[in-house]
Inverse folding.
């Protein structure tokens, strides 16, 4: 268990540092006020976790430890959006299309609502 936590933590460290560096593009690139660095992180992370999932499904190239390091640690540290996108992919593979719509809709709506409520709560302090 400790070994797995260290593997995940190491990947998370690398992913978090990479996310920080890429998100710095938000300070230098402007495209209609879109946070380009964050957008790039989310898209890249989603592509990488999809690619790794495909490799893991088709071959034994990735050991369980490498999956933990790359998929849970690195991608998870880089962007949690990649995990969200990968979970939706798994639901689609299982034919759970209504669940995909529900999960995506709830995630977006409740995520925005949670951000708004958290922000509003700071006004009460």
């Amino acid at each position: 268990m400790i070994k797995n936590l260290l593997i995940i933590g190491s990947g998370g460290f690398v992913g978090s540092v990479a996310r920080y560096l890429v998100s710095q593009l938000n300070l230098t690139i402007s495209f209609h006020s879109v946070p380009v660095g964050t957008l790039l992180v989310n898209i890249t992370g989603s592509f990488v976790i999809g690619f790794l999932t495909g490799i893991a499904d088709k071959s034994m190239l990735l050991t369980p430890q490498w999956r933990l390091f790359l998929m849970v640690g690195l991608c998870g540290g880089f962007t949690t959006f990649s995990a969200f996108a990968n979970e939706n992919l798994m639901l689609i593979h299982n034919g759970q299309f209504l669940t995909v719509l529900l999960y995506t809709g709830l995630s977006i709506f409740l995520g925005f609502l949670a951000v708004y409520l958290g922000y509003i709560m700071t006004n009460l302090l």
Notes: The first helix runs from residue 2 to 23. The chain has two domains: 2-82, 95-125. Residues 95-125 form one domain.
